[in-house]
Amino acid sequence: MTSAYDVLEERGLVENVTDQDAVRKMLAEPPVTFYVGFDPTADSLHVGHLLPIMAMAHLQRAGHKPIAVVGGGTGMVGDPSDRTELRQMLSVEQIDANLDAQKKQLRSFLDFEGGADNAALMVNNYDWLGPLNYIEFLRNIGVHFTVNRMLAAECFKQRWEKGLTFIEFNYMLLQAYDFLHLYRERGCTLQVGGGDQWGNILAGCDLIRRVDGAEAHGMVCPLLLTSSGKKMGKTEKGALWLAAGRTTPYDFYQYWRNVDDADVEKCLTMLTFLPMKKVRELASAEPGPALNESKKRLAFELTRLVHGKETAAGAAAQSDALFGGADTDTIGPIGPVGPMTITIEEERLGEGVLVVDALAELGLCKSKGEARRLISQGGAYINDERVDTIERTLTADDLEDGQILLRAGKKKHGRVVVRGE
Asked: What is the pLDDT of residues 51-67, one digit of tens each?
């Protein structure tokens, strides 16, 4: 019996499941209505959200119906999972703005068009949590939870020593109630989430069983980790966001273009829709130029999913222009998709342009003072050659194919183009 569960398992998207046989059987008979929750803590989703989103997309492609629950209600409380301190409390206006931004991003992965039995649905849990009567909620829902069992959950144990606020202690009850509400109103029988949500998901399954005597299941995806065990998606600038305004498409592309050799197969498997036969072919390439081509394919596929095909092609062209393999006249204007570029007159280059000035003008350093410190620490490069003095200037001798490439650290790039060349 073919089941969407087997697809998720082959893709490495299943870390834990309430009952493997039962979930495999239910997912072999579409449509199953399932949901994933998203907290509106920022105006963009980030790479850490990608595995549950990919699980949603694979399930929808198999005929199942996804519900994206944006946490307008739970976001006012704050999830203590995977946190060492209380989350920042957001205003209603901030939450609403974040929800709108996240909705647009999810549309890149899910089909929300009406008419199909498995068209994706997006709901805001404030719609049913907001009107709750607290006393009635405690009597009807709170009575089914024991403090001892809640404290055994990993999300609470992590916070116990530093202090767990009462408002956070309510989060598990509210998320469990989300599942009960969606079961009753939408026939939702499966919750999918990140590994840090396992305790909350189990609480929802148990609440449905206790209150309505029905069976519901949960499944969690693993954390997206590098081969060294670190969280993937962390950069020098912070998190790798899906919004172009937070992480440029070029930087997003470059992140995946530069993944460790050992992570190529994992990323292709988990984060793309390429057939597994193609994934294994790309991942089996020999280290060096061949595997670099596989990394380019990974970077393009992911950037295309998040930002669209045209933007992905632009980011790939920008990368090739900087590191070889493309004609700089064919890649179009430089904008937020690619590395920063400044154009200078040939006469100015003839007089000599201080590298300090160029680094600041490109935005690779916040100020000339920072640029001087970077050079002194050996972190500035011209065409991949280290700059050894703060007095170094750019001249015509530095031109390669009509441009000069500058680098600050390992991953911040820019270029100087000379007008008239």
From this structure: 999 999 999 999 999 99
